[in-house]
Amino acid sequence: MNLKQRLKEGVPTRALYATAYRGYYAGKRLIAFLAVRSPRQLAKYFLARLQNRLFDWRNGVVTHPLIEPDRLRMESKTSQLANRYQGVNERLFLSILERHYQAEWQRYLFIDLGAGLGKALILASRFPFRALWGVEYSPLLCDQAVSNLQTFQKRHADFPPWRIIHQNAALFPFPDEPLLLFLYNPFHGEVFRDMITNLTDRLNRCAEPVFLLYIQPDNAQLIPEEHFRRVDGSSVWILYEGLASRASP
Q1: pTM for the whole thing?
Q2: pLDDT tens string 225-241
Q3: Rg of the chain over CA atoms, in angstroms?
Q4: Helix 39-59 crosses helix 139-155 at what angle (to 10 degrees)?
């Protein structure tokens, strides 16, 4: 519906102003984004966006939107510690898991902390995990993630058991079983710190193995070296192994 139609049909003036306001600032953000990037960086960015849309088209899901924290429908304090939602790069994620694949993963529970729209869970289903869990605090993202996984499951009868858990990751109780945890830079500050504290308690409580895959590791300095050994990584991802459980009696 164009502006003239909206006016003709009596769309409230406040809604029109709100739409114009969002459009104006979206345009400013786009101009600022374009101004600080080289042609090569822009080509890489738009290629990634195209690949994300193709992923959605192939699988009948919606994971490609970029969603700012203030649109995630969370309480203000928590949204201030959340990062923008964006789906993980398919090629990068799969290449890391293929590189470190272990036959015993069939015993492991894969947990995506800050699961967003569930893309990582869909990708992780290519590996023989016992089950797939996504922990997400935004009700908006939770609802769409459930819809995505239900759609994907209908197309793939061998899809493993899965859950989307609506909870703050800082308060999530890590289960006492083999775990592969995944983070795609979903949050920072005290949420990240409290999550790591809870995970360290889990390591001290139970000797079952824990691995943590962290892509875009902006808060790696908050991960204590005495409890998490760096197994592999690069400038854009790190794989850790939990160590505290090894010292448990």
Answers
A1: 0.81
A2: 999 999 999 999 999 99
A3: 20
A4: 60
Secondary structure letter of residue 100 according to DSSP: T
Contacting residues for 19 by C-beta, under 8 A, at least 6 apart: none
Buried b or exposed e, range 226-238, using 16+ CB within 10 angstroms: ebbeeeebeeebb
Report angle CA 56, 49, 32 to the nearest 5 degrees: 145
Question: Splitting the chain (249 residues) into consecutive groups of 10 residues, what average pLDDT does each group show?
Answer: 46 58 61 63 68 90 88 70 89 96 93 97 96 95 96 94 95 96 94 95 94 96 95 96 63
Residue 73 C-alpha from the chain's centroid: 16
Length of the chain: 249
Q: Please say whether the dihedral angle defined by the alpha carbons of residues 106, 101, 180 and 45, taken in this order, is positive or negative.
A: negative
